[in-house]
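Lecture 7 notes: from sequence to structure.

We start with a single chain of 633 residues. Read the sequence below before looking at the structure.
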Amino acid sequence: MEAVVSGKANNSPEQPSSFWKKFLSFIDRRFEEILIVSGFLIFIILINLQVINRYLLPFLDIGNITTWTEELSRYLFIFVSFLGASLAIRKRESIQVSVIINRFPKSVQKALHLANMLFMFYFSYMMVMNGFQLISFQMETQQTTPALSIPMAFPYSAIPIGFALIMIRLIQMFIKDMKHMTIQEGLLGLTFAIVMILPIAFLDNAGIAVVLFGYFILFIIIGMQIAFALGASTLATVLATDAIPVDFFPQTAFTSIDNFPIMAVPFFIAAGIIMGGGAIIKRLLNLSDELLGFLPGGLALVAIITSMFFSAISGSGPATVAAIGTLLIPAMIKQGYHAGFATGVVATAGTIGVIIPPSNPLVIYGVVSQESISQLFLAGIFPGIITGLLLLLVVYIISKKNGWQGERKTFNLNRSAKAAWDAKLALLVPVIILGGIYGGLMTPTEAAAVAAAYGIIIGMFVYKDLGLKGVYNSLVKAGVTSSIIIMLMVMASIFGRLITLERVAEIVAESVLALSENRFVILLLLNLFLLIIGLFLEALAAIVILTPILLPMATAIGLDPVHFGLIMIFNLAVGFITPPVGVNLFVAASTAKIKIEEIIKGNKYLLLTMLALLLIISYVPEITMWLPELIRN
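Now the structure, written as tokens:
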């Protein structure tokens, strides 16, 4: 008895310590997640409230609701974006080029990773320090927001707070990595960092463009996250040449994403994630199977047609591949399809996700180029449909030749009608999005917010396959995924200021136009360049980096900016299915658990089809521009 009492007495002083330890662990794991989910839910509600108030409750114009809901949503979106960036650091999720660094010995990889963290940490530190200076300036000048009339210091605080959290996560990453790193590897990483940064002291007379692109290429080669490679190379150039003030960085970071149209990206991502893991995607697959499953190559055809349906929901190629591949690739292999072909079909069909509207790359291109997102969505409709139809034809021919067919060989009208009725709520999503936009009822951002809310409501209360935990996880994933894209936008805007200052776009255009005045030749060179870029650079990164450089050249040869946007995105879509960076290939390969080489071998005819389509879309502008021109006229 004494032993028991003694044990209780000994344990009781440890209980508060244990409680705080668990509490701090919970905060460490969930801090950004809870705020991201809360932010998402609030601005989804606010934007939907804005739409509802406009059409259903016009008599309830609560305090000029359209103005203040949009402003509050924008500021929440900025906070959520930087919180998501911090969480992405903790989860080690990023867009980077790892082809070169993966060829180095493990010890060198670890050392370069340490050097990357040091550069990212210093860049974040500069953003924090200059961000606080910007807030001080806002407080001194007493600037307020237009609609809410709150001090501008509050929304601007997203910059130093966000980058301070990134610094904390980088320190945590450093501590974890040091446990698996020898002293020699640590010293080597420090040496790499010093050697790479030393030239700054001697580059004051060098050209700004040379230093900027030199450091950018260097940081890409050593595997730094592309967003930070853009920011760090700009900072290195500014420190070397004094091209612009460093305090310009946080202001640009804020203004570059204080933009209502760009908010469509997280909403479309959220809608795709929410609908891609539940009953909606299964009903779409069932409908496609009833319509095409009886033909030779039935399941492969189903993969393509479902990709077209789901693309009109998610706006993302990899999301489409992940949603469809998990269900269809194993089923196709079980029916006797070659594993490489089955996986290649899903990977290639996923490219439709970035062509057919709504498309996240089209939204990003629209924001960067300042072109109408609605016009770009219209431009993507026919190319997306034609891509799907040609892929269906090629897959049908290959499947018939190889005798790949399911057990069912007849079409049943009643079953197809029942499948269409079961999928009605899924089929309504593209109608809501595109009908809302082109009916003049909603902006693309509002349509995306409505789609996200629709997915949550249908999943939770109609199909009931989405619980609170599912909503939480989906919004966390959407927050991380969209923040990676938004950080690219932020850093590319900072990077772009030096490009503008040095007239890089004009110089590139003049150089290429000096090679030939033939529009056919220049367009061919543009396509070849973009195809090569697509091999090594992720599509969204390529769009934000290259659009300001290549668009002036495209307009100089008479290309409509909307048409050029589709050409650029189609080129980069081909990059989704070509190594070494092909995102769709890796997503599909991880689902099928087969080697990339097998997919490439089984995918060769579909890749050739995509290249042929690229030439058609490039040289027959009417395919892309017919609908936009119709609306313009």
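The longest helix spans residues 14-55. Keep this in mind for problem set 3.
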